[in-house]
């Protein structure tokens, strides 16, 4: 009986050792297979963004990990957003300090109540269309970029969600309208905005911002021409990059979309910061400046002080016209 039990025990041990070796060999084979399929080399290939095989057809359909997306996120969140905010706040603070120190640029002589036509009705309609669209796009764009940091907690999730959805819709649909209105403005006003020697002297004298000096200027002075070209190049850049973002199904890769987003944001922030100066000078900064774009006419005293060459040209033309 003891011999039988001993022999059974030996057989059981042999069977156990054999099965353990077989299982271990199977585990090693399985591990080797997995390592070959999803090991370090496999994930390295995916991380590099190499395309694999996919049943889904289309641009970048086989790319499982978009590495460039992390670079875009870092650039947008670490550089564009914070430094853009610093630039906007810096310009606003500078203009406020300047206004508190210098105040509004007043007319040197009393108004004559004699009006000179400066802008046609079409020019004013074009200007205010561009201005309203620009301000709307600026507010919605800044909400999309910064709103989650300030407005979300203030408005609450429900109102915030509806507000930001509205911002996105307005931004996407008004963008092409802004581009069209801007192109009309560029074509209509291009002839007035080429620089000349008068503009150089205007810049040398600082545009008459400080003191009582009033450098000569034609229909538009050097500062207005600078704003025109900033709006032209900045607006065209914003429009093209915005169209790429508006219509993502025209064959753009994700990398192109990401760079378009960065270019769109940087150009917009620069143009918004510059627009603060334009708005300030045209409203609180200069007496009588806004009247030209609201009524189409300016007082003779304003014209002689700020655009003397244009004023003389208008007076000469008026004198030489046949009765």
Automatic annotation (TrEMBL):
It is an enzyme of class 1 (oxidoreductase). It is a multi-pass membrane protein. It holds the Pfam family Ni_hydr_CYTB. Its cofactor is heme. Residues 118-296 form the Cytochrome b561 bacterial/Ni-hydrogenase domain. Keywords: Cell membrane, Electron transport, Heme, Iron, Membrane, Metal-binding, Oxidoreductase, Signal, Transmembrane, Transmembrane helix, Transport. GO terms for molecular function: electron transfer activity; formate dehydrogenase (NAD+) activity; formate dehydrogenase (quinone) activity; metal ion binding. Gene3D superfamilies: Transmembrane di-heme cytochromes, Chain C. Belongs to the formate dehydrogenase gamma subunit family. This is Formate dehydrogenase subunit gamma. It comes from Neptunomonas phycophila. The lineage of its organism: Bacteria, Pseudomonadati, Pseudomonadota, Gammaproteobacteria, Oceanospirillales.
